[in-house]
Structures are given as structure tokens and as C-alpha cells.
Here is the input.
Amino acid sequence: MTSALLDALRATCGAPNVLVGGDLSAYERDWRRRWHGKALAVVRPGSTAEVAAVVKACAAAGVAIVPQGGNTGLVGGGVPDDSGTQVLLSLQRMTRVRAIDAANLAMTVEAGAVLQAVQEAAAAAGLLYPLSLAAEGSCTIGGNLATNAGGTQVLRFGNARELCLGLEVVTADGEVWDGLTGLRKDNTGYDLRDLFIGSEGTLGIITAATLKLFPLPAAQTTALAACASLDDCVALLNLARARLGAGLTGFEVMGRFALDLVARHFPALPQPLPGAPWTVLLEQSDTEGEAQAHARFEALLGDALESGHVSDAAVATSLAQSKAMWHLRESIPLAQAEEGLNVKHDIALPVSAIPTFCRATDAALQARFPGVRLVNFGHLGDGNLHYNVQCPEGGDAKAFLRDHEHAINELVYDAVTAHQGSISAEHGVGALKRDELVHRKSPVAMDLMRRVKRALDPANRLNPGRVV
Amino acid sequence: MTSALLDALRATCGAPNVLVGGDLSAYERDWRRRWHGKALAVVRPGSTAEVAAVVKACAAAGVAIVPQGGNTGLVGGGVPDDSGTQVLLSLQRMTRVRAIDAANLAMTVEAGAVLQAVQEAAAAAGLLYPLSLAAEGSCTIGGNLATNAGGTQVLRFGNARELCLGLEVVTADGEVWDGLTGLRKDNTGYDLRDLFIGSEGTLGIITAATLKLFPLPAAQTTALAACASLDDCVALLNLARARLGAGLTGFEVMGRFALDLVARHFPALPQPLPGAPWTVLLEQSDTEGEAQAHARFEALLGDALESGHVSDAAVATSLAQSKAMWHLRESIPLAQAEEGLNVKHDIALPVSAIPTFCRATDAALQARFPGVRLVNFGHLGDGNLHYNVQCPEGGDAKAFLRDHEHAINELVYDAVTAHQGSISAEHGVGALKRDELVHRKSPVAMDLMRRVKRALDPANRLNPGRVV
Here is the structure.
């Protein structure tokens, strides 16, 4: 049975693209090394027709499929389980840019294209594909869409979902749905596109996508602002939105302890506002030019200083300074890793609820785990915090996690639920949060999701055990 | 059986809200008077709990439900068939603004709230809800979401879909799905929200929604530009996008004959660019003020004049002039109605394909129906044209439609399909285009849609005969 399937896969994709022996850990282990499975085979189809044939062969053999892009996910959604019975289907050979239609501000790319290559292909055509995130050098656009990736430009441009016009998907039956449209408007039936986006490979396998492009901004400028509290950060956000409109493309917040960790582990990085309880990074993208963008930043921050929401500010006057500001923000996860193990949360809240949530949850964590350290930073403009919990100074991180990770998660997620938030803002569900989801979503929502799953994948063969 | 159901509905909603006699044409007939059905009863629940109870009662009696908002739809999706067996469920009593969260730029309203009331409630809080369309004085937000309405601000803000954060929906079983979230990011499972949006009441009944709000722009300015061809219009669009970025909130195109009809039937309306083969209406929304917006328009149009894409232009210098320009655009459908019956098409195309599509389709129509007149106008920035066909000058419009409507539709829709377009950009499918859809969508897409319908409404009790 298995050998017949392997023969069929080899006949479809060529023997070199059906891997069964040797070190397959690049496919079988996630990059944070939290999951390590065992695949029946790793299959690397080179075309949509080959993906469809692989799905049909696996369906005929009753074998489950785990689709994988760049394997940069954070929730164990793209690696096989340890049963040795699942076929890992890697999209990495399907990297073609099929078309760029500049006058329609759209491009069609295959699912295995690396995000950075997509950005570069758009830029080569004088256009912008705005999705941007830490893993962009190795994550794929198919994975970005399957997980509805977020990143640093969501405030202006939306998540991966909002940046997609159409999809090509191989269904659980091995049929090809050609939904590759370049249309901005199309009300001819149910929104299949958005059903597949964010479904983490459990409803179909995304093989290509038509993406929205934008004119390249003439200038991008960055500023830092020091705030005394998260209330001040939210006030600054709303002032910036009103004054800069869609020109405000980034609004990141960084807690004092997060930046102290950066100072400890990367002392060479300049910190322009060293004493700030909260530091906000603002980014402005402009169609006119740097002089105007600077003038707008100066006016905005001047008013925020006067109204007391900001106590100090620094506007980048060069590209190097802008990059250094972003580098500070991007160094937080690295500094945190240097400091040691921690409990990560990728949560979303209504922006208006963030100050209350943090006050209440910080206090509850301190009361229950005295001395615990909070690395709090994230995309405040989207209501998305990376609210991470580190053991007390000098403590044994491993033991702390072993003893308290579960209780910390429960405490934080209960607070998130109480504030109408989400326990997964941008990372998805995967294997990591599947069981938790049942407790956090309503029975009606779970029932609707299960009905959809059964309708589109009745044999439960696409990424089983993930999401629902 | 029927009387038991009516008793149950009266017990739920109160007898005055269960209408069975008298003139019910306001509910049973669509406003264009193309469909006139007969309802078993018109039920007007006053709360989500009442909607759920009505759905349960109808399910127990095996009776189908047609949900209705403001009854302004254009595709016969909101009126009952003529069997006298369907319950018409009107959401018009559920008009409450449940909450406005200004710091989170979100508001929650009930489905029966009239769009204009929603816009006004947002404005009263100093914020903008951007959805705007001709029927806004009577259409409801529930209907807007059920049909994924478009309108004049899609270029910047997207369709109703993109302006919605969360929904409350009564399912086919009469359960309430509370998906009223104010979150910008939430990757905890399948995108149920977007599945219900645009499903035209066939998968569930939207009872409330949380909507995205935006800061009010400081200034809105309008300009008209004369172009020799649609190629020039597309060139101007892309120049305007690059120069104005997200400040470009409207880009409407109006063909010569469309404006000639306005001149014929509304001679008092000023036409600043009377000889233009194509007239573009540009709208700019600005966070700074009118002076800057004017300067940007002058620079943009100056360059477009120099490059030859524009032959003449007029920038509005007062609010009255801006309104007059929009009035010109909005008068086209009215002028067309004065001129007589016509065949309407609400099509979408990739923006880049519009000039070729129009050249080819105009010529094909002229060849087949000599002297036929094309009223071509619409939201060029979104690739959405209202491409309407009027009988030859002095002809018998009624006879022309009777003899040729079907052939005209076939010709136009074949051309749309050949150019990768959509036969319904913003009006939906309803009863009007349901049969056509089967010919225009792939069997794979139709199969996926039917699976979803069966999964969520297995007894086919929600708006049967519509969409799928």
C-alpha cells in the first residue's frame, strides 16, 4: 500500500522530489524546535497539476497531507505528527512570479515564493507589496496566506487577507479551484477566498495567489516618542491617526523592560529615549517627500508634548536613523531569547482596552508570581501585543516554565477573554492552540467551523489535528 | 400547521409585528418593480432573541425564510417568491446603535439601522463610516453586509466587507453566533465573518455588526478631468494613485453619451467640460486642509495636461462646486431612466483590461445592434463599470428589450468572461443572476459553494433559490 503510493508520488513529481530517507528534519521539525514529527514521505511537487495529482494519490491511499511553505510557523501547524503516516507536501519548488499587471496594481505568484522575493519583484516593477514580517527572508507567500500573517504594516494595509485578490487552491478531492482574479469587486457568490485564507491548510492547499500592489511611497520616515503610560500611547495613536490619516503606516509600542533587555544584551544599539516607561515607534509613508513628512511629524509630536501625552521625542533625520529605530524594535525578541526561556503570547485586544488589560493582568501576574518580568511590546495600532512572561531575575527559567507555563497561559488568556480579545492575533492556531480554542470560542462558532471542515474535507485528510 | 406557526410568531414578536393581510407590497415587491412575490407572513422581530425564535419556529414548521433589510436590492434577493409559503423576516425594527468605541475606531449597530443613520452616528462621534451609496437613505447596514455593498468610496476604504470587524448572526438552526469583535487581528479559526458577508441571507441572518470607523478628513475636494480615451483615464488613475496615495478616495468615469443624457434631461446642471469624450471625477480626502489638497490637485492635473492624458480640467473651489460635480455623476442613472428602459450591467474587470474590453464590446454591440447607445459610467478606480445598453435613438425601448435583452446580456457577459471579469461587481446574485452564475463560475467553485450551503443550511430554509 505505502510502496504503491510512493511509486505514484515518484511518477508524479519525479523520484528526486519524493524524500523518504536521510535527514528530513528541515521539514519535520519547526524552526523553534518545539515539534519534531516523522513523515511518511516529503513530496515536493513542481506545479499545481502535480499538487492535485499528489492529493488524489494520497486520497486514494487514505493518507493525510500536511502542507508546508517556509516552515517558519510558530504554532506547529506545518510539521507532520510523529505517526510516520502523513505525507509532508512542500510547496517550496513552486516559486514562479506568473504575472505582474502594473496598471491593475496586481501580481500573481506561486505559493512557494519567498515573501522577500515577492516584495522584490513588486519593487522591480516600481510597486509595493506591503506585507512585511520578521521571517520574510524564508517564509512563503502560501504560508503567509494560509496563516493570514500580520506584521508591521497592518495598521495601513491590513493582514495578508486584505492584501489578496484571488487564490488558486487544490481541494481535498484533488480538484483545482482557479480563483485567481485581479478584481477589486466581485459579488458572485460565497467568499471562498477568505475561507481558505487563514485555514492553515485544513480546507485546501493554496498553490498560487493574486496579490494587491500599491504605488511605492516617495518617503518613509520614522520617529520615537516617550510616553508615561499606555493610556498616553493610545491617545498618541488616535492623534496620529487623525493628523496623518493613511500616511501612518506603523505604530509599535515597546515597554521599558523590553528595551532594558535590549540594552543588556545589545549594548551597542543606541537608545534615544533611555528613561521612557513606554516608547512608541511611529512610521509615516508619504507620497510627497521627506520635508513634508518631517514637518508633519514635528507638528504632531509638538502638540503631543504640549498636551502631555508625550514627554520626549526623536524624529529620524536619515535613513540610517530610521533603520536604527526599527532595529531597536526588532531586537526585542532576540534580546528576550538571550535572556532565556519565556512564555510567549500573541494576543489582540480592542485598542481602547489595552491600558486596562495591561494594568489588571500585570498586577495579577505579579501577585501570583512575585518578581515575574513582563516583556510587553507589539503592534499597538492593531491592538496586537506580544505579551511575554519571563521568570524573576536570576531565576531558573526552565523550572519556572515547567512549573508555571500552564497557569500563566490560563491567567493571561482568561484576562484576554474578559476583555473581548483574541488568544491568537497573527500566529494562528495550528497544533499549539487547538485544544485551547475549544474553551475560548463559543460552541456555536466551533460547530460552524466543524461543519465547514466536514463539508470541504469530509475524510479529514488535510492537515488533520490542526485548527478544528 | 400554518396557523400554529402564525400563533408562535405572534407570541414571539407580538401580533402587530406579524402581518398577513392588507397591502404588503412594500415588503413583497422590490423597488425597481421587477419582482412581486407573496409572503406567508411578514414578521418584524425586535431583537436578536426574537429573530432566533422566529427561525426556530419556521424550522419546526418546515417553512422557508427570506430576510429583508431596506428592500433596495437590485437582484431580487430580498423579496419572497410567489408561492405564498415563505416568511419574510424584516430587520427594520432592529435599528439600535449598541456602542461606539471611539478609541478603538469601532461601532456596533443592529442590522436594521439605515446606512445614513450609521454614517450620522459615526459623524456625531467625530468619526467617519465611509460606506456611501445611492440608496443610503433607506438601505440598511444588514443588507449592505449581506450583499457586500460597494459604492463610491471603495477605492480607498474597500467594500462593506473590508469595513466590518465582526458580526452577530442567527444560524439556520436558530442559534446565535456572537462574532461581534472589535479586533483588527484575530487568527483563531476559519473566517466565518466573511462567509456570511455577501451570502445574501442564504447562510444565516445578520442581526448586528461591529464596523470600522476612521478619523473624519479635514477636507474633501473634487475635480473633473477631460480625457480623450479610456486609456488616458487609466493612465490618469495610476498617476493619481502614485501622487495622492490613500488621499485619492474617489475616481469615477463618465462617458460622453451618459453626460449627454444628463444634459438632455437635466439641462440646468452645469457641465464644466462639455466636449470631453470621457470625464473623470476625482475626489481627494485630506487630513491637512483645503489649500494643500488644491495644490496637489493642481500639480497632478498640470502634469497630466502636459503629458497629454488630460485635455482640460476643473478643480472645485467651493463645497457647492464639489457637490455639483458629484450631482452630475449621480444624475446619470436618473437621466437614463428618463430616457427609457435599458439593459443594465454591473460588471467588474481588471482596471488594465477596461479600455480593450470597452473597444471590443462597444464594436460588437454596434455590429449586432446598429445604432445602439451605450451609457457607460462607473467606479473606474475599482474596475467597476455600469455598462448599460439603450435602444437606438427614437426606437421602441420596450420592444428592443423584449427582443434583444437576452442576446445583449450574453454578448456582454461573454466579453466580461473573456477579459477575466465579473458579471456582478457590487449588486450580488439574488434571483436575477442565479442561473447565469452556473454558466460563468467553474464547476469546482459551484461545488464548493453548494457544499458550504448544505453544511450551514442543510434543509435549504434560508432564502432558497438565491445565489446557489
